[in-house]
Amino acid sequence: MLVRLLWKPLPESWPEAAPQRSAGLRGLAARVWEVAAGVPRDDDVERRVRRGAMQAIVRESFQQTVAEQDSEHRGPAAFAEAWKARLAAVLAQETVEVTGWGEITIAELDIDLGWSLYEAASRARAEAIARAVATPGCRRGADDGPTVSFEFSIAADGDGSLGRVQYAICESCGVGLLKKISFSPEWHCCGFGTLALRELETRHPALTWYTTGQYAHAQGFYQRYRHRSDSPWTADQHPCPHF
Fold first, then answer.
1. pLDDT tens for residues 121-178?
2. Cβ(28)–Cβ(4) under 8 Å?
3. Eight-state DSSP code of residue 41
């Protein structure tokens, strides 16, 4: 839903076959399309251009807020507030430069559409985070001796995969090796890393877990998780000889 609101062209009306969502999100999304359809221009092409320009402003405000995540580490609520503040600052200007659009005059756009779009997209992001669960795992490639490799996703119904987890286990040695957790930047700091590690522990209890070498910004996360987990995680970079 987030992608549909910020990246897909806004249609004239809310689709009949809208994905199942809470009544609140359905109402917000319907309002976006209602406001978009009512932009007061006789020329349909001009109306579509104005809608697209406002959507581009909301999207770019979102992307700039995402770009700050590596340094700010904002949780979902703080992210929404930062995005809102950035959008308000942009809409308060007379003109703004938007990637792919050049200079846009704010007074020529429909501000109500921008705020309706922000509210619906922000709610869609929050609901995707709340609904996120781990999918069933699948094996990756052929077994390598006693070790078996797996993969699963963190996904929200209607929003598809939000990220992937790759790992391997050696049951004979009681060892699990976390190879990679990958989430796109817009889903950083949403609790999905913790969800993924807890899922590993639930699926394979009693294993001692290792991780591969991690980027510096991820090392702190693994250290914090290791200290509060009931399962044994180790900082040692040398799992059993079968890996």
1. 999 999 999 999 999 999 987 777 889 999 999 999 767 899 999 999 999 999 999 8
2. no
3. -
What is the domain partition of the chain in residue ranges? 2-131, 134-228
3-state secondary structure of 15: coil
Neighbour tally for 223: CB within 10 Å? 12
In angstroms, rounded to a whole number, what is the distance separating the alpha carbons of residues 220 and 214?
Answer: 10
3-state secondary structure at position 177: strand
Q: Give the integer Cα–Cα distance in Å for 123 and 109.
A: 23
Backbone φ and ψ for 14, nearest 5 degrees, come out as -65, 125
Q: What is the pLDDT of residues 60-96, one digit of tens each?
A: 999 999 999 989 999 999 999 999 999 999 999 999 9
Cβ atoms of 113 and 51 within 8 Å: the answer is yes
Give the pairing type, strands 133-134 and 147-156: antiparallel
CATH 3.40.50.300 fits 134-228, yes or no: no
Q: Which residues pair with 134 in a beta bridge?
A: 154
pLDDT tens, position by position, 177-214: 988 888 989 999 999 989 998 999 899 988 988 886 65
User: For residues 26 and 132, what is the distance between their CA atoms, to the nearest angstrom?
Assistant: 19
- Measured CA to CA, the distance from residue 170 to residue 147 in angstroms comes to 5
